[in-house]
Each structure stands twice: as structure tokens, then as C-alpha cells.
Amino acid sequence: MKMHFDDLFIHNGGVISPKVNVTINGLTMGPGVSFGGGVSFGGVDFTQYVGKDFEVEVADGNHTITGVYN
Description:
- The protein has a five-stranded mixed beta sheet. A two-stranded antiparallel sheet has the order 2-3.
- By secondary structure, the chain is mainly β.
- The protein is built from one helix and seven strands.
- A hairpin with a 2-residue loop joins strand 2 (9-12) and strand 3 (15-18).
């Protein structure tokens, strides 16, 4: 399913935190985790994708990102 960045993450002053459990490339992070630019999770710097849409598979409360829309 297609989901917007803001459905998955909070972006506040350069700091990003997931709103829900998110998995990318086998790494899962959940609410309470915060990071800024230059920090990669599963090889991805999410600050590069603020405002983008993701392809996401949702199962058992986990949101697995499988792609990014341009």
C-alpha cells in the first residue's frame, strides 16, 4: 500500500522519529527512536525522503517499507 512519509514518521527540526514500527532491509525501529541527518537505518538515510511516498506492507502492526515513489 502507498503511505506518505508523515503517516510513518514525525519530522521535527531535522530529527525523525517513527510513529509506528517500521522495518527496512531487515532492521526494525519503533516509536521512541530518534535520529537526524546522516544516520542510516537499514542503509537508508530517511532525511532524504521527507515528503515522499513509500510502498509499505503492513502485517501484525509492523510497516515494512519495500520501495519509494519519486
